[in-house]
Design goal:
This protein is an alpha+beta fold and 523 residues long. The chain has three domains: 100-220, Potassium Channel Kv1.1, Chain A; 225-354, Serine Threonine Protein Phosphatase 5, Tetratricopeptide repeat (Alpha Horseshoe); 374-522, PHR domain (Jelly Rolls). The chain is built from 18 helices and 17 strands. The strands form five sheets. Strands 11-10-13-8-16-15 form a six-stranded antiparallel sheet, with no helix packed on it. A hairpin with a 2-residue loop joins strand 10 and strand 11. Helix 11 runs antiparallel to helix 12 (239-251). The chain is flat and about 85 Å long.
Length: 523
């Protein structure tokens, strides 16, 4: 019987041998046959075969975790392991108790305690650029199990026996995120460090962490960061991420070109964007974005942002801007007065607009193709009645979801059923009550049952498998066409669109009939 006190000390081992009654009886019979014998003769008797039995008690057998109870975490929603993870992130190196191994039932949890912990550390990393370094402990065996690069570094043929390794090209936060994955089997990514973490995962060949970083970037991809991610995806050789970036840049080109991230891209990425045939933007926006990039590049090269220096850093990329395809007003009031063009170039472009015999230009003069919008029509027929469709400031609304990422550019709307008329339309797109896009514009209907496009200022990115609410408030001729025989699911190219009724609809529009007959989108 193992006797243990509450603190796990003063242990005593007590052994009891119990003679079963049957054994005692048999032994007595053997002794009686020989008559009375002395004590010396009794010692010559064959040894008794004892049986060792287990004493059962009503108390439950205690395990190590019961003997050494865990400390309650300060936050009831977090576990003790998570607390130590947080401590180790700060390199507190707190060990819970001398017998801390008994606190954790799995090898994964015990291994996690070693994360960023000096206990038993046999290597240290000095991570980060000069002036921003952080010294982090490591354990060669754990690191080698998690990365083939670390295995070669510590156990390969050319392994170096160094106690301290300098890594100036990786950010400390990113290196910690990689170590946390290797030690704890946990992926902890943040928007401001995910690119640096991807770099670390690629450098040390941790493929599952790299894949998680790419997935994180894809889900957080937007027009604001698409240009920067495009540059990085090419650097990291991630073709899927590159393709997703191009989808966003093409569809939301003006937003992407006006973003701060556009000014941070490298020259090679700038050229690839300016060459893009499917860029869905006005050329004056492309021109202004290129000038903003040139100004930022002058600062990076520690040059004064003069006209000459801007043109110098742009180099041949300037001629990738399709200036001759601009509207004449945009050229006259914008590019012609920017100073970035020479006088000769300005004169030739003006002649290109006006002269019958056009001069040869270094600039690309063919307009970009842009993107062709797709239309998802949800009604099989339309009709009109003498007393419908009336508006009076009420909202027509429908909910929809798609199975692939698309970009809603606008809605196709019905017009007047009794001759030509002009309408004012306030269109809106929401997700879970949050407005993603809206616009107030006018359109002219010719009295036919055709639909007429009304556009958002910028296309709105729509994620798959989530319902969005499309709404419109119309003001105009009160008698208009309306759709009927509505479909709950429509296949439009490679995109499947599902429709359901919206509680925001106060004017009768639903799945079976009403307004908003078309969704106009890029895919």
């Amino acid at each position: 019987i193992l006797m243990v006190d509450e603190k796990g000390k003063n242990m005593k081992c007590l052994t009891f041998f119990l003679m079963l009654p049957e054994t005692v009886k048999n032994r007595s019979k053997k002794s009686s046959k020989k008559g009375n014998s002395s004590s010396s003769s009794s010692s010559k008797l064959p040894p008794v075969c004892y049986e060792i039995i287990t004493l059962k008690t009503k108390k439950k057998k205690k395990m190590a975790a019961d003997i050494f109870p865990r400390k309650k975490p300060t936050n009831p929603n977090t576990t003790a392991v998570q607390q130590y993870h947080q401590q180790n992130l700060n390199n507190n190196n707190t060990i819970p108790a001398p017998n801390w191994q008994g606190l954790y039932p799995t090898i994964r949890e015990r291994n996690a305690v070693m994360f960023n912990n000096d206990l038993m550390a046999d290597v240290h990393f000095v991570v980060g650029p000069p002036g921003g370094t952080q010294r982090l402990p490591g354990h060669k065996y754990v690191l080698a199990v998690g990365s083939s690069v670390f295995h070669a570094m510590f156990y390969g043929e050319l392994a170096e026996d160094k106690d301290e390794i300098r890594i100036p090209d990786v950010e400390p936060a990113a290196f910690l995120a990689m170590l946390k994955y290797i030690y704890c089997d946990e992926i902890d990514l943040a928007a401001d460090t995910v690119l640096a973490t991807l770099y670390a995962a690629k450098k040390y060949i941790v493929p599952h962490l790299a894949r998680a970083c790419v997935n994180f970037l894809e889900t957080s991809l937007s027009a604001k960061n698409a240009c920067v991610l495009l540059s990085q995806s090419c650097l990291f050789e991630e073709p899927d991420l590159t393709q997703r970036c191009w989808e966003v840049i093409d569809a939301q080109a003006e937003l992407a070109l006006k973003s701060e991230g556009f000014c941070d891209i490298d020259f090679q990425t700038l050229e690839s964007i300016l060459r893009r045939e499917t860029l869905n933007a006005k050329e004056i926006v492309v021109f202004e974005a290129a000038l903003s990039w040139a100004e930022a590049e002058c600062q990076r090269q520690e040059l004064t942002a003069t006209i000459e220096n801007k043109r110098k850093v742009l180099g041949k990329a300037l001629y990738l801007i399709r200036i001759p395809t601009m509207a004449l007003d945009d050229f006259a009031n914008g590019a012609a007065q920017s100073g970035i063009l020479t006088l000769h170039e300005t004169n030739d472009i003006f002649l290109w607009y006006t002269a019958a015999k056009k001069p040869e230009l270094q600039f690309v003069s063919k307009p970009r193709k842009g993107l062709v919008p797709q239309r998802c029509h949800r009604f099989q027929s339309c009709a009109y009645r003498s007393n419908q469709w009336r508006y009076r400031g009420r909202c027509d609304s429908i909910q929809f979801a798609v199975d692939k990422r698309v970009f809603i550019a606008g809605f196709g709307l019905y017009g007047s059923s009794c001759g030509s008329a002009e309408y004012s339309a306030k269109i809106e797109l929401k997700r879970q009550g949050v407005i993603l896009g809206q616009n107030l514009s006018k359109y002219f209907s010719d009295g036919s049952s055709n639909t007429f496009p009304v556009w958002f200022e910028y296309p709105v990115q729509i994620e798959p498998d989530t319902f969005y609410t499309a709404s419109v408030i119309l003001d105009g001729n009160e008698l208009s066409y309306f759709g009927q025989e509505g479909m709950t699911e429509v296949q439009c190219g490679k995109v499947t669109v599902q429709f359901q009724c919206s509680s925001d609809s106060t004017n009768g529009t639903g799945v079976q009939g009403g307004q908003i007959p078309e969704l106009i989108f890029y895919a």
